[in-house]
Amino acid sequence: MNFGRCFDGKRFVYSFAYKENVYVTSPAHDSVQQVPVKTETFDQVKLMDEMGAMLDDMFNTATYGPILYDEYRNVFYRIVYPPIKKEEGDDPMLLRMYGSKNFNIIITDHDFRILGEVYFPDNTYNPRVMLVRPEGLYISESHPLNESYSDDELKLRLFTLKEQ
Length: 164
Description:
By secondary structure, the chain is mainly beta.
């Protein structure tokens, strides 16, 4: 099963690809709480039959990605992969390796109240390479469909939170 997890110093938080809720548990995993952290992009995640699925099925299937904890701002970032429109020449294996064509990030406070959702442009960033630092969230620009992509360097762009 595809999932991501993080630890905020007191709790483990799990994000599963086909679940709208995140699962919060103590370090001992003796209790589990489900908390809704749902995107506005699509209504419902539908489980893809991974055993019989074709690679092209990933284009039509919306999923959730990993969750990261930002200890400097006391927030969580949950990755969302909306369904994408397949275009001529799209390589599903390449897109799966680099986190799809586009993605969103749901930002929540420490109690999982949604603060906002940020939408990222097509073929620009690689959500599989992200780093939380004191100055903000770094996301890789090393997406093979990005015009400035190079195998010779890893580019990271800094994103910061702004109050609304």
